[in-house]
Amino acid sequence: MGKDVIIACDFDSKEKTLAFLDRFTEEKPFVKIGMELYYAEGPSIVKEIKARGHKIFLDLKLHDIPNTVKKSMAVLSRLDVDMTNLHAAGTIDMMKAALEGLTREDGTRPLLIAVTQLTSTSEERMQNELLINASINDTIVKYADNAKKAGLDGVVCSPLEAGMVKSACGKEFMTVTPGVRFADGEIGDQVRVTTPAKAKEIGSDYIVVGRPITASEDPVAAYRRCCNEFIG
User: Fold this and answer.
1) pLDDT at position 186 over 70
2) What is the CA radius of gyration of the chain?
3) Is 107 exposed, middle or buried (0-12, 13-18, 19+ CB in 10 A)?
4) At a CB cut-off of 8 Å and minimum separation 6, what does 218 contact?
5) What span, in angstroms and rounded, lies between the C-alpha atoms of 27 and 39?
6) pTM above 0.85, yes or no
7) Which residues are catalytic?
8) Quick one: which H or E segment has residue 164?
9) Dihedrals phi, psi of 75, to nearest 5 degrees
């Protein structure tokens, strides 16, 4: 159950994270470790959660010159995570370098995906503040196509764009989608959101769900609800 539902463990300490995961006595959810937790606890928290039997999406969104990203990905590859990511805005060369750094001597590597546009970014902000004159949909599809050309496994996009990414890049190209909320929940600071069931219908392969689960009075029940809605 729930292999395609990733819980965003956006906590600021090891204690809070493990206390949260301890509530799951039957399941071993796929978890996302983001900047907040990684910067607070470092690589040791990744190793500890992995040792508990969880799959891990290490969400650090690397974005730097190709050589720096290549070397950084080589370090992250040793943590034995299942998925990691970078910003597609770093260009095809950076993404190719990342893939090279992430690939171990035996040819194995975690899945590598690229962030197209953050789910907190609206088209208006993208055009006015980032000076990207194309539509947000065209930008996301172009970034996804660049990621595919670089050899990546897929992209992070909002669930609203998953279908158009699939149309442009093929059904095998993965879509990992945050911005998922229950129909009766708050959307928070994200602006491009939808429900688990709708995300699946549009074309999401994985959904990343944070506060609707982590801030719930009963996180296990919320996780199971999310899985049931996404699986259908």
Assistant:
1) no
2) 17
3) exposed
4) none
5) 26
6) yes
7) 61
8) helix 162-169
9) -70, -45
